[in-house]
Amino acid sequence: MRDFESAAGRIWSSRAIVDDFRTLCSLGGRFAGTESERQARDFLAVRLAEATGGTVRREAIPYRGWERGPARLAPAGGASFPACALVRSPSTPPGGLRAPVFDLGRGTPADFTLAAERIPGRIVLVRHEYMLAAGHIHRRRKYEMAKAAGAAGFLIACHLPGGLLVTGSSGAGTGEDIPAAGISHEAAAAIADRPGAEVTLEVAGRFVERSAENLFVDIPGRTEEKVVLSAHLDGHHLAASAIDNGSGLIAVLAAAAALGDIVPGRRRGLRVALFNIEEWALLGSRDHLAALAAAERAALAFNVYLDSVAGAPRLAALTSGIAAVESTVGAVNAEHGLGIQVHRPFMGNSDHANFIRAGIPALRLCCGLDDPGCNLRFLLTEGDTADKVDPLELKAAAAAAAALVLAASEADLPRLSRQEIERVTAAI
């Protein structure tokens, strides 16, 4: 208890968490491969060294990058609408892709099944959803269903009015991918009012070989084992990526700074990890874990992953139903009264999922669970800006992360068996 009180006191009395957040957001959205992402990475490397007193290790991750070109949607005989090419979308042919639109509404598996005979050759239109709600169907799943059904193209419309575009990733850069773009609520309404009418979708993008960097600092404990405290570094270009995931990055920095002189006395040490290219199918953490020597991977006992931890008043832990994870969250709630919510079904769209697949108990700390009116409704849109985050929420998230790290640093944490991994990841 005394260690947590010390760490929490440092977090709540620190001005650095506010200054760091504002500086990070001023650098832009951190889309992988851009100057914004490079500047943010360099800033975070400096602050990580200052916060922990440790040496920052930079790990190069080669990947197939992608540069976004212009995009637009033009209904036949009507005014065109701006669009946003989804990450790794193939370009449309010269002059664009001309085809009728088929509006599938939300785009559930049932919608795709019932409309299977009418989808081939058409551009499928679906709606973006609030991402932290029970029953949420991820954009990539809708895209894959459209592709499998023979769609010629894919459109996803923002669920919020106000002319906001929506972004995110789409294909894998293969020849089977179809052109994909995000559009506004208003653009979707305009083309949905003309069922069967043709539109012209123009999307441009270029693939390029790149290398990203993950950042790490280790603080030793009494044994070789470590708890990993992590967040993802990259974001999207439409805004500042303030909630997703500027909030997680800065909360990790604050928690690490507060724990620096406490960890050496604990059973397990601390590895602070800032993973890159998370928004591109979790590539940075995936390749990092795959490249680790078996002994080093075996020393990783637990992952506390922070993603979108401010923008709503209450924190939640995505536990994937793992007993060791739930007991850790339960112990923290019981001892410190933090009231962290628990969500059990596995969500495979954040870095903690790669730790689980590697047999390492892991959780994602977030906020806004089943609260679609909170500021997390602006994720992946032009509304993900610094004004959506209350500094007190950042401090609360950092304190909760510190409590979870301290609990995991002493608890008995069995590795996940292959059978448990399969059970967990199947429970979507």
3D architecture notes:
It contains 13 helices and 14 strands. It is of the alpha/beta class and 428 residues long. The protein has 2 domains: 2-64 and 210-426, Aminopeptidase (3-Layer(aba) Sandwich), CATH 3.40.630.10; 66-206, 3-Layer(bba) Sandwich (Glucose Oxidase, domain 1). Strands 1, 2, 3, 4, 5, 6, 7, 8, 9, 10, 11, 12, 13 and 14 form a 14-stranded mixed β-sheet that branches. Strand 9 (226-232), helix 7 and strand 10 (269-275) form a beta-alpha-beta unit. It is elongated, with a radius of gyration of 22 Å. It starts with a helix and ends with a helix. The model has no long low-confidence stretch (mean pLDDT 95).
List the secondary-structure elements in sequence, H or E: HHHEEEEHEHEEHEEHEHHEEHEHEHH
The helicity comes to: 25-40%
Structural class: alpha/beta
Mean pLDDT: 95
Give the CATH superfamily of the largest domain: Zn peptidases
Strand content: 15-25%
Number of helices: 13
